[in-house]
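Retry 2 of 3 after timeout on previous attempt. Resubmitting structure tokens to design endpoint.
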């Protein structure tokens, strides 16, 4: 079985270890290289921390929109199309469709298809 491709963090860490071993053995000055690689690892850490905040913000926004969609669907007893929901919520049809798919996957909404017409019903 083939091992997965190493991450940048693994490559930088391994390179630092090799450089430190070479420096100890042969007496080379590799401090500049080690400092540069350590800096790159710090940048990777910062990048990871920044994306977590964005993901949480996006998830909260999606929950808010899903609640809005559920509210619109609760007001009508009949199945609704994504376009109708988009008009009622002032959201783009693409966004409504994506959120409806998540809601279907979560079991909150039922998707029904009659020939080419796809409708959604709140559970």
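Retry 2 succeeded. Sequence:
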């Amino acid at each position: 079985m083939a091992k997965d491709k190493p991450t940048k963090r693994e490559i930088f860490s391994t390179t630092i270890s090799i450089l430190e071993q070479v420096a100890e053995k042969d007496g080379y000055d590799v401090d500049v290289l080690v400092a540069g690689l350590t800096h790159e690892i710090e940048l990777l850490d910062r990048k990871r921390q920044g994306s977590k905040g964005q993901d949480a913000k996006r998830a909260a926004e999606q929950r808010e929109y899903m609640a809005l969609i559920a509210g619109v669907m609760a007001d009508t007893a009949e199945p609704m199309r994504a376009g109708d929901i988009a008009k009622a919520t002032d959201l783009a049809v693409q966004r409504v469709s994506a959120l409806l798919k998540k809601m279907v996957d979560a079991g909150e909404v039922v998707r029904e298809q009659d020939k080419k017409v796809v409708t959604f019903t709140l559970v």
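Attempt log closed. The radius of gyration is 26 Å.
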